[in-house]
Amino acid sequence: MKKIVFILILILLGSCAKKEPYLKVGLVADPQYANKPISGKRHYKETLWKLEEAIDTFNHHNIDFVQNLGDIIDVEWESFDAILPIYYKLKPGIENHQLLGNHEFSIDSTHFKDLLKRLSMPNYYYSYSKKGWKFIILDATDYSYYSNALHNHDIREIDLYFEKTKNQSNSQRWNSAMGAEQQNWLKKELEQANLLEQKVILFSHMPLRPKDDPHNLWNDQEIIDIIEQNLDIVAFINGHNHSGGHVFKNGIHYITLFGMVDTPISSYGILEFYKDSLMLRGYGNQKNIRIEL
């Protein structure tokens, strides 16, 4: 009898062990910190304690790394001095990755050249690999009116991207496009992932879906045509639309994280990786989302 009980305990322990994720990623979108009062749904000052809570949660769950989805500040360069030190409270060994959102360019343009260094970013778009997965960070601010003092693209090319959105809901000057050079880089990154048999997650500030969302990239369909041909891509995860959302289309989960600034409570998530699925566990206003592999 004791032997049977012992075997049952081992089976139960083994079953529980299988349910433990082998990779955990903290996700934060649109903190948009500013030292100013509440405006509408936006709780600018409260971002500091909300991000503190998120970092405490990430530390408690011993996540592997944090990926931010842009708009860490609202309008002033000095706001970085208040919000960035909160990320320094992550446990040693937990990496922190940033990407650029449109509000990063609401600062005085004289600081544009210092953005990558301030956010400890290796480049405007880049990638890294963890435990059999490839994570590709895209620059949604590539071709835009607000960032061109930094990127210095031909203004006629920016005009062309914008003009193609005429009469579309995303014809907004706070949106932008990903140019040909970045697209070619993305294709090469996806080819390498395929050769290494890696599954892929893409991170961006601006969304691609749902169709006709006013927050979408100007050339959303151009990027969709690239990624929906690739069977290795599991998810495209972004911010920018503070209302959040989830669309599953042609094998890819398009997930928009709820904006941290747009709530008096908080909003962030932990993406857990299992053998046969992913689970986005939401905190505050962020909903849970399950992804089958």
- Classification by helices and strands: alpha/beta
Beta percentage is 15-25%
Give the integer mean of the pLDDT values.
94
Instruction: Return residue spans where pLDDT drops below 50 for at least 5 consecutive residues.
Output: 5-17
DSSP summary, beta strand count:
12
Overall CATH class = Alpha Beta
- Overall shape: it is globular
Number of domains: 1
Oligomeric category: single chain
- The CATH level-2 architecture is identified as 4-Layer Sandwich
Main sheet specs: 6 strands, mixed
Question: Mind telling me the CATH superfamily name?
Answer: Metallo-dependent phosphatases
Report how far apart the termini are: 40 Å
SSE string, helices as H and strands as E: HEHEHEHEEHHHEHEEEEEE
Question: Could you characterize the architecture of this molecule?
Answer:
There is one protein chain. The protein is an alpha/beta fold and 293 residues long. The chain has one domain (21-292): Purple Acid Phosphatase, chain A, domain 2 (4-Layer Sandwich). The chain has eight helices and twelve strands. A six-stranded mixed sheet has the order 3-2-1-10-11-12, covered by helices on one side. A six-stranded mixed sheet has the order 4-5-6-7-9-8, covered by helices on one side. Strand 6, helix 8 and strand 7 form a beta-alpha-beta unit. Helix 2 runs parallel beside helix 3. The longest helix has 17 residues, at 2-18. The chain is globular, with a radius of gyration of 20 Å. The two termini are 40 Å apart. Residues 5-17 have low confidence and may be disordered.
